[in-house]
Automatic annotation (TrEMBL):
Protein name as annotated: Transcriptional regulator
Source organism superkingdom: Bacteria
Molecular-function GO terms, alphabetical: DNA binding
Pfam families: HTH_31, MLTR_LBD
Record organism: Streptomyces mashuensis
Domain HTH cro/C1-type: 30-103
InterPro entries the record matches: Cro/C1-type_HTH (IPR001387), Lambda_DNA-bd_dom_sf (IPR010982), MLTR_LBD (IPR041413)
PANTHER family with a match to the protein in the record: BLL4672 PROTEIN, BLL4672 PROTEIN-RELATED
Region (Disordered): 1-24
Length: 289
């Protein structure tokens, strides 16, 4: 239950409890950043409150908006483990005006479950091997590049056109995040690399890291990328965006396959019903009409 009488004396009301963590995926850091975006003067429920709120939305304000004690909300923002209910987390999401991806990140980081509004059923445990039907569907995509990746963005399989557009998928143990964020050729081939590639992919890693904190492979991948690249470290520390997937994202490429002519493409992310632990991704050119 959400305790109404939880009092936390002596704490700093606007500082989380994870001072030792300056990383961009910490839920404490994200909650503070999300709260800082909201102008308390624009919140109808705070009108008439004494003292009159200024621009800064405080922890006390969020506690009032969500119907809990200030100490209870402070425990959430400090990253302390409690039995936070779905109702409370939904009220926090509304109070902080979180997007769908941000609400998802909050739920996964705090409770390990998805928010109830998504209406999605949990993925079935992965079946061993790659189903023949899924592989056949992938190989029959002859008009656009397509690939399958797992939860850590390892490329499980790719069709012929994907290998022609992006030869790196044919190398041993290809991984989308390592190539896109660490390989020099990615900065040449992914135009607007900083904004269209790095920020988006790091935001996706942030969701994944919160959704499965015990996944050693994911944690090692994040650590490897941040250790290896100063630009990624800067973006990770400065940004707090979260993105669940890249479905529908339009980006620009400059590939040897197209004689280095700029093309605009969009990605489509599907989940195979037989292997919902995998992503089925297709890349299609954007109609230039």
């Amino acid at each position: 239950m959400d305790r109404e009488d939880g009092h936390d004396p002596g704490g700093d009301h606007d500082h989380g409890g994870d001072h030792g963590h300056a990383d961009g995926e910490s839920i404490s850091r994200l909650l503070r950043a999300w709260r800082a975006r909201v102008d308390a003067r624009t919140v109808p429920e705070l009108r008439g409150v004494s003292p009159r709120p200024g621009r800064r939305l405080s922890q006390r304000h969020v506690a009032r908006l969500t119907g809990v004690s200030e100490g209870w909300y402070r425990a959430l923002e400090a990253g302390r483990r409690h039995d936070f209910s779905e109702g409370f987390l939904l009220r926090v999401a509304r109070a902080l005006r979180l997007s769908e991806a941000e609400t998802l990140t909050l739920f996964l980081a705090v409770s390990g479950r998805r928010p109830p509004e998504t209406g999605r059923t949990p993925a079935a445990p992965p079946a061993p091997g790659l189903p023949a039907g899924v592989r056949t569907l992938l190989e029959r995509q002859v008009g656009c590049p397509a690939y399958l990746s797992d939860g850590a963005w390892n490329i499980v399989a790719a069709n012929a056109l994907m290998g022609a557009w992006f030869p790196w998928v044919l190398r041993p143990r290809p991984n989308l995040m390592r190539w896109a964020l660490l390989h020099p050729e990615a900065r040449e081939q992914m135009l607007d690399w900083d904004d269209s590639c790095a920020r988006v992919y790091l935001a996706m890693l942030r969701v994944a890291a919160n959704s499965d904190p015990g996944n050693a492979e994911l944690r090692a991948l994040v650590a490897e990328i941040l250790d290896a690249d100063a630009d990624c470290r800067r973006i990770w520390a400065e940004e707090h965006d979260v993105v669940e997937h890249r479905d529908g994202h339009v980006f620009r490429l400059c590939l040897p396959y197209h004689d280095h002519r700029e093309i605009r493409v969009t990605s489509h992310v599907l989940l195979p019903i037989q292997r919902q632990d995998l992503r089925f991704v297709l890349i299609t050119p954007v109609d230039e009409d």
